[in-house]
Every structure is written in C-alpha cells, then in structure tokens.
Specification:
This protein is α+β, with helices and mostly antiparallel strands and 151 residues long. It has a domain of 101 residues. Helices cover 40% and strands 19% of the residues. It has five helices and six strands; from the N terminus they run E-E-E-H-E-H-H-E-H-H-E. The strands form three sheets. The protein has a two-stranded antiparallel ribbon with strand order 1-2. It has a two-stranded antiparallel ribbon with strand order 3-6. It has a two-stranded parallel sheet with strand order 4-5. Helix 1 crosses helix 4. It is globular.
Length: 151
Amino acid sequence: MKGLDVIHATGKGIKVDDIDLWGNEADIFRPTVDLTGDEVDRVDSIANEIKNSAVYGIGRAVFKSTFSTHTAGAGLQKRLDKYRERLKNHQGVVKHVYCSELVILCYQLAWENDRHRLFIDLDGKHTWPSTLRRHLKNTIHWQHLGEFAPQ
C-alpha cells in the first residue's frame, strides 16, 4: 500500500480508503526496518490481488477464528503453497477473507519462506484481530505507532 491508502476487509467488502477519510479506529504498525521498493511492491501487489478476487467472509471471521487455533501449523504451509500458485497464475488468491487474515496473508505471501523478518507467523485463517495486534506488539520487527482515531 503506497502513500496513505489502506486496503481493508469489512462487511462492506474489500476496500481501499485514504487513512484520513477512514471512519474506523485502528492500530497502526510499521516495520522497524525500511522495506525495499521491491518488497513494498510485492506486498502491495498481493493486497490488490486479494482485493480484486475476494469478498469479506463473515463466516470465516466468526467460525474459523473462534473454533480453531491461530498457531502456524503444517496446514498453513500447504495452504500458502496453494495460494502462491493461484497468485502466480492470477487465479484469485482466496474467495473469502477477513480483516486480520488479509494483513497476515499479504506479509506471508510476499516472501518465499517463513524466514523473512516480516513473515507473520500466525495462521491468518484462524487469527482474531486482537491476536494479530498482540503478536505484532511483541515482535521486534514491528513498531506500534499508536491508535488511529478518525477526526
């Protein structure tokens, strides 16, 4: 995401909004080291691929997050391999996505493996936003800039 645009998943769909016009509260995080131009482009490209192919998944948000574990297990790598193949072929990465999953997927699919410093080591399909927030706050690779509240 370039500039002040935010791609987010809401009940109104996958949207792009200018942060200054965004009407929601949010925690804002930034990597502790600058991304290269190529890294920014990869994350941005994946976010847009997801935006263009997915719809907000309320069932996924409620049931998958509530009744499963956010721990990255064996199923995650298999799912990421499937998503990477779809991404490579522009087939639509996922059909349904919710807010925290969108963020996690962007930072997982952008890197070749889980050893990249910004790979988010959570299973996005099963991660509540509060779990993502807690994870990022406790990771040295992410800086919590504070809470955004609409003016």
